[in-house]
Amino acid sequence: MIDHLLLAFALMLVLEGLLPFVAPNAWRETFRRLIRFSDGQIRFIGLTSMLVGLVLLMIFR
Predict the structure, then answer these.
(1) How many CA atoms lie within 13 A of 5 on its CB side?
(2) 46 near 53, Cβ under 8 Å?
(3) Count of alpha carbons within 13 angstroms of residue 13, beta-carbon side
(4) How far apart are CA 27 and CA 60, in angstroms?
(5) Matching InterPro entries, A to Z (predicted)?
(6) CA–CA gap between residue 22 and residue 34 (Å, rounded)
(7) What is the pLDDT of residues 18-60, one digit of tens each?
């Protein structure tokens, strides 16, 4: 189980690093836009991301 968790974490780091590596200006602009969001909007994005991740886990597992 821990092996799968570490693999998932490693894959997340690779995916998170793609945009800043490939398009740093777009990455910076994305963060500029995120700063303008309210706490509720950021929480909604986080919740939506978690739910999509859980659904994908259920589908592919």
Answers:
(1) 2
(2) no
(3) 6
(4) 29
(5) DUF2065
(6) 19
(7) 999 999 999 999 989 999 999 999 999 999 999 999 999 899 8
Place of tokens 């821990």: 2
Q: Extract the tokens encoding 52.
A: 């999509």
The three-state (H, E, C) secondary structure of the chain, written as one string:
CHHHHHHHHHHHHHHHHHHHHHCHHHHHHHHHHHHCCCHHHHHHHHHHHHHHHHHHHHHHC
Handedness of CA 42, 47, 48, 49 (dihedral sign): positive
pTM of the model: 0.70
Place of tokens 């398009």: 23
Q: How many alpha carbons fall within 13 Å on the CB side of residue 57?
A: 9
